[in-house]
C-alpha cells in the first residue's frame, strides 16, 4: 500500500467538484498537495471543506505546457491526478474549440510533463462518454472509443493519448472511466442531480429536459475518489499500468425515476416537469466494473439512495450558509 504521508501530489482540476473531494482525501492522508489553478474560485468546495489553506496553489493553465511543467517541477511531483476538463456537454457542443484545447491539448501537456519529469504515477480521469454509443450493454473496457459529439470525442482523444504515453514511453498511467458522478459541491445547476435538488429544496417542481426515459449509471463522488486513489496506489502493478478501468454501480435508473428518488429523499410532494427538449442524448449507458473489482479490489460503498441522502444534506448545509 502506498504511503501518502509527505508524498508530493499534483492535481489538475483540484478546485473543481470532483477534484476538491480528491484533494480533501489526500490532505487527510497527509500528502503534500499542489493544485494548478487558472483562476481562483471564490466559494469553491475547497473553501467549503475548510482545506483551501492546506493546499499549495500554482497559478497556471493546463493549455500552457510551460506552466504545467514548471509547476510540476517546482513541487517535485511524484503522483499526478489529471482531472481538469471542460465537462459541460452543452458548452462543448456550442464551443468545441475551447473544449478541445482544454480536454485534448491539456491532457497531452500534462502527460508530456509527467514524461519529462519522470512522474512515478499518473491517473487520467476519462469518462463513460469516451465510449460514445454502443448497442451492447453494459459497456466494457475493451469496447472501442466511439465519441461522436464534441464532448465525447474530446474524452475519447484524451483517453487514447493517456494509453499511448503508457504504451510508447512506459509512463505509469491508469485511465479511469466513471459513470455520471454526483455529490455535494457540484454547482453546475444544469446537471440533473444538483438542478433537481436545488429545485426540490426550494419547493419547486424539478425540470427534466429529456422525455425522462434515458437510463444512466450514477456514482457517488466519494466512491470515485476511492477509485482514483486505488488506481494510483497500484500503478506499480503490471496489470494496472497502461490500463483503463470502468467505475460504476451497474444499477442504472431512468432520469424520471432519479428525480422521483430525490423528491422522496428530500421529503417533498412534488411532480417533475418533463420538457422533452433534449437532443443528442444517448438512450442507455452504464458500465461493467468487474475489472476494477478484480484487479483493484474496488467496489462502490454507496448505493444510490444513500448517496442521494448524503448529497441532499450537503446542499441543505450549503444553502443555509449562502441564502
Number of helices: 11
* Helix coverage percent: 40-55%
- Strand tally is 14
State the fourth-level CATH superfamily of the largest domain: NAD(P)-binding Rossmann-like Domain
**Largest sheet entry:** 7 strands, parallel
* Order of secondary-structure elements: EHEHEHEHHEHEEHEEEHEEHEEHH
Question: Any overview of this molecule?
Answer:
- The protein has 323 residues and is of the alpha/beta class.
- It has 2 domains: 226 residues, 3-Layer(aba) Sandwich (Rossmann fold), CATH 3.40.50.720; 65 residues, UDP-galactose 4-epimerase, domain 1 (Alpha-Beta Complex).
- 41% of the residues lie in helices and 15% in strands.
- It contains 11 helices and 14 strands.
- A 7-stranded parallel beta sheet has the order 3-2-1-4-5-6-11, with helices on both faces. It has a 3-stranded mixed beta sheet with strand order 12-9-14. The protein has a two-stranded parallel ribbon with strand order 7-10.
- Helix 3 packs parallel to helix 5.
Key traits:
Rossmann fold; alpha/beta; 2 domains; 323 residues; single chain; UDP-galactose 4-epimerase, domain 1
Topology:
Elements: E1 8-12, H1 17-28, E2 32-37, H2 45-48, E3 56-59, H3 65-75, E4 79-82, H4 89-94, H5 96-116, E5 121-125, H6 150-169, E6 173-178, E7 180-182, H7 192-201, E8 207-208, E9 215-216, E10 218-220, H8 221-233, E11 244-247, E12 253-254, H9 255-265, E13 273-274, E14 284-285, H10 290-296, H11 304-322
Parallel strand pairs: 1-2, 1-4, 2-3, 4-5, 5-6, 6-11, 7-10, 8-13, 9-14
Antiparallel strand pairs: 9-12
Helix pairs in contact: 1-8, 3-5, 5-6, 7-9
Amino acid at each position: 500500500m502506498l504511503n501518502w504521508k509527505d508524498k508530493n501530489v499534483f492535481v489538475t482540476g483540484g478546485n473543481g467538484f470532483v477534484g476538491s473531494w480528491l484533494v480533501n482525501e489526500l490532505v487527510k492522508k497527509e500528502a503534500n498537495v499542489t493544485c494548478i489553478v487558472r483562476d481562483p474560485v471564490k466559494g469553491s468546495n475547497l473553501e467549503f471543506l475548510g482545506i483551501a489553506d492546506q493546499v499549495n496553489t500554482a497559478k497556471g493553465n493546463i493549455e500552457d505546457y510551460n506552466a504545467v511543467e514548471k509547476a510540476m517541477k517546482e513541487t517535485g511531483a511524484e503522483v499526478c491526478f489529471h482531472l481538469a476538463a471542460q465537462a459541460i456537454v452543452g458548452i462543448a457542443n456550442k464551443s468545441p474549440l475551447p473544449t478541445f484545447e482544454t480536454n485534448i491539448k491539456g491532457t497531452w501537456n500534462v502527460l508530456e510533463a509527467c514524461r519529462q519529469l519522470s512522474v512515478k504515477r499518473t491517473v487520467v480521469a476519462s469518462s463513460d462518454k469516451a465510449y460514445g454509443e454502443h448497442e451492447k450493454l453494459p459497456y466494457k473496457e475493451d469496447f472501442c472509443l466511439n465519441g461522436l459529439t464534441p464532448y465525447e470525442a474530446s474524452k475519447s482523444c484524451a483517453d487514447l493519448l493517456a494509453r499511448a504515453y503508457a504504451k510508447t514511453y512506459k509512463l505509469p498511467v491508469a485511465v479511469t472511466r466513471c459513470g455520471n458522478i454526483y455529490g455535494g459541491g457540484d454547482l453546475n445547476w444544469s446537471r440533473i442531480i444538483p438542478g433537481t435538488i436545488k429545485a426540490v429544496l426550494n419547493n419547486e417542481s424539478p425540470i427534466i429536459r429529456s422525455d425522462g426515459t434515458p437510463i444512466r449509471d450514477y456514482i457517488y463522488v466519494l466512491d470515485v475518489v476511492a477509485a482514483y486513489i486505488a488506481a494510483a496506489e497500484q500503478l506499480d502493478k503490471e496489470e494496472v499500468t497502461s490500463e483503463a478501468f470502468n467505475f460504476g454501480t451497474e444499477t442504472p435508473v431512468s432520469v424520471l425515476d432519479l428525480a422521483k428518488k430525490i423528491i422522496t429523499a428530500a421529503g417533498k410532494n412534488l411532480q417533475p416537469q418533463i420538457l422533452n427538449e433534449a437532443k443528442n442524448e444517448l438512450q442507455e449507458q452504464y458500465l461493467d466494473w468487474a475489472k476494477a473489482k478484480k484487479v483493484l479490489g474496488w467496489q462502490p460503498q454507496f448505493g444510490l439512495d444513500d448517496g442521494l441522502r448524503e448529497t441532499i444534506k450537503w446542499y441543505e448545509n450549503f444553502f443555509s450558509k449562502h441564502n
